[in-house]
Every structure is written in structure tokens, then in C-alpha cells.
């Protein structure tokens, strides 16, 4: 696989990052994941916008102009012949002597790689995911997409140990989001409910696109927090993320929702989102 490291395209086995890189030592970096369908980038502008915001929030600079980031994405997709999958981008504050204070005048580290993966034809989306609730013990700035992913990894392992696919994180009795996705329920009267944006959750790019689809389809949307107890009374549930699109959730904490099959709203939104995002793909 060809990867991109600081201006160069190299074989992954030749790629080098300093042991002093602050991404490695402090998780001092941000990332984005853009999905690729039919060799094209999905929601690229949204991911770039959020990347810029994450960088600003951490007093980091933009690594290179938007046009250049787009061409690196395209070049990697082409060189690795990715038809379906994702492009991962990471920017860290760079390599410097280990010190908690941010270093000055250090070049940032920019890394991108691709992963080929079948994402439209996903067995999990077909079957529907089983989730369990886990305490949300992450830091307080989840609106920034940092590479600090240890707690979400631990939550995912707790879920797997319980025979589930993923965890829904709960803070003060209310669901924040999934380990790597935004969480939704559909009430008995058909209203889509998802937590409102704040520093408690990541503003999903797929979330924005899917809510737009839902409103265009005349579905009712409420942006507010919900509890696991409320979710257990829901008609259906689902998650959204760049590589999962819309993924139905069929079981929460061991209790099946409705008949235990993917819900109609989730299935419809998944299809609508894939169609709409493909039309706008670049
Ligand atoms: N929430 C968290 C914690 C995530 O890690 C992600 C994606 O990685 C999302 C939500 C969904 O964001 P997006 O739709 O931009 O992929």
C-alpha cells in the first residue's frame, strides 16, 4: 500500500515518523475519515471543514491548502486503486523534545492512508447492530476529532465481551453517542431523535447529511438527548458515521427493539443517504 507522509508518497513499509512525534507521545493530533464509493470521495468538503475547526480549537495550523488536500486524497485513492473504502488523514503537532507545553515553530506531521473495504454491502447493516450502554468516561471536548481514542476502544471491548457489536456511551443518564458514530432512536410516533450538538459529542458529517435527507423526506426530527430507558421504548434505532453510513440498531442492553429487525426508517435513510452522497461525490 502507498501511504502519504509529509509531502511524499511511499510504500507503507518505508514510511517513517519520529518517536518524538506528539501524536505518538501525547495523542496531540486530529484526524478525519472520508469514505470512498465508486472511487469517489463522499462528503469531502464537510470533512475538510471539520478538520479546519478541530485544528483551530487546538491552536494548530492548517497543513496545506484545501486543493492540495483534495489532490492528495485523490492521488492515494488512484495509486491504491480504491473503489470502495476510506481515506484516513491525521495531522499532529509534530516532533519535539517531550514537554507538555506546545512546541513553537515545529513542522506538523501530515499522514494519509487508504483502506479498501466493502461498506455499502455491510453484513452488520443488513443484520442490525446490538449495542450495550457504557459510562461515557471520555474527556470534555468530544467536538474535536482528536486521535485520543483509548476510551472508545475500551468501550468497544466491553461491548464485545458482552456479545454486542458496539457501545452507546451514557453521561448523566443520557446517551451521548456511539464509540465511533452518532446515535438515534425513532419514537413510536415516528420522530427521529438524536442528541443536539455541543462539546459532548462529535458533530458527525454523516449526521448533518442524514438529518438533511430525513427532513427532505418529510420525516420529523428532534435534536435533544434521550436516555437508554427511552431508547428501549423506541420503535427503532440507528447510528451514523462516515464508514457505517446509516446502520440500524436492533438491540439495546439485551432487549430487542420491535421485532428485532432493522427498522424501516433506518433502511430508508441508509438508501437515501447513499444515493444523495454518491450524486455529490467528488
Ligand atoms: N462520533 C464519534 C465519537 C466518532 O468517532 C464519529 C466518527 O468517527 C462520529 C460520531 C461520526 O462522525 P462522521 O459522520 O463524521 O464520521
Automatic annotation (TrEMBL):
It holds the Pfam family Aminotran_4. GO terms for molecular function: branched-chain-amino-acid transaminase activity. InterPro entries: Aminotrans_IV (IPR001544), Aminotrans_IV_CS (IPR018300), Aminotransferase-like (IPR036038), BCAT-like_C (IPR043132), BCAT-like_N (IPR043131), Class-IV_PLP-Dep_Aminotrnsfr (IPR050571). One of its GO terms (biological process) is branched-chain amino acid biosynthetic process. GO terms for cellular component: cytosol. It catalyses: L-isoleucine + 2-oxoglutarate = (S)-3-methyl-2-oxopentanoate + L-glutamate; L-valine + 2-oxoglutarate = 3-methyl-2-oxobutanoate + L-glutamate; L-leucine + 2-oxoglutarate = 4-methyl-2-oxopentanoate + L-glutamate. Its EC number is 2.6.1.42. Pathway: Amino-acid biosynthesis; L-isoleucine biosynthesis; L-isoleucine from 2-oxobutanoate: step 4/4; Amino-acid biosynthesis; L-leucine biosynthesis; L-leucine from 3-methyl-2-oxobutanoate: step 4/4; Amino-acid biosynthesis; L-valine biosynthesis; L-valine from pyruvate: step 4/4. It is an enzyme of class 2 (transferase). Keywords: Amino-acid biosynthesis, Aminotransferase, Branched-chain amino acid biosynthesis, Pyridoxal phosphate, Transferase. Its cofactor is pyridoxal 5'-phosphate. Belongs to the class-IV pyridoxal-phosphate-dependent aminotransferase family. Acts on leucine, isoleucine and valine. This is Probable branched-chain-amino-acid aminotransferase. It comes from Mesorhizobium zhangyense.
Amino acid at each position: 500500500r502507498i501511504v502519504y507522509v509529509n509531502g511524499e508518497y511511499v510504500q507503507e513499509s518505508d514510511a517513517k515518523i519520529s518517536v518524538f512525534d506528539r501524536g505518538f507521545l501525547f495523542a496531540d493530533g486530529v484526524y478525519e475519515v472520508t469514505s470512498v464509493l465508486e472511487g469517489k470521495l463522499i462528503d469531502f468538503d464537510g470533512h475538510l471543514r471539520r478538520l479546519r475547526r478541530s485544528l483551530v480549537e487546538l491552536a494548530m495550523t492548517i497543513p496545506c491548502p484545501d486543493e492540495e488536500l483534495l489532490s492528495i486524497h485523490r492521488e492515494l485513492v488512484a495509486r491504491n486503486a480504491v473503489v470502495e473504502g476510506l481515506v484516513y488523514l491525521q495531522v499532529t503537532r509534530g516532533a519535539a523534545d517531550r514537554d507538555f507545553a506546545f512546541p513553537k515553530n515545529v513542522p506538523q506531521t501530515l499522514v494519509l492512508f487508504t483502506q479498501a473495504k466493502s461498506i455499502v454491502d455491510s453484513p452488520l447493516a443488513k443484520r442490525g447492530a446490538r449495542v450495550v450502554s457504557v459510562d461515557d468516561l471520555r474527556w470534555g471536548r468530544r467536538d474535536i476529532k482528536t486521535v485520543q481514542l483509548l476510551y472508545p476502544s475500551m468501550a468497544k471491548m466491553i461491548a464485545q465481551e458482552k456479545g454486542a457489536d458496539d457501545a452507546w456511551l451514557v453521561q448523566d443518564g443520557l446517551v451521548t453517542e456511539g464509540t465511533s458514530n452518532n446515535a438515534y432512536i425513532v419514537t413510536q410516533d415516528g420522530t427521529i431523535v438524536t442528541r443536539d450538538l455541543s462539546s459532548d459529542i462529535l458533530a458527525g458529517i454523516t449526521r448533518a447529511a442524514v438529518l438533511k435527507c430525513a427532513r427532505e423526506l418529510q420525516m420529523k426530527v428532534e435534536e435533544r438527548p434521550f436516555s437508554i430507558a427511552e431508547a428501549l421504548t423506541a420503535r427503532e434505532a440507528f447510528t451514523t458515521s462516515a464508514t457505517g453510513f446509516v446502520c440500524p440498531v436492533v438491540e439495546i442492553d439485551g432487549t430487542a427493539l420491535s421485532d428485532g429487525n432493522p427498522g424501516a426508517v433506518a433502511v430508508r435513510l441508509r438508501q437515501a443517504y447513499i444515493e444523495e452522497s454518491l450524486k455529490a461525490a467528488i
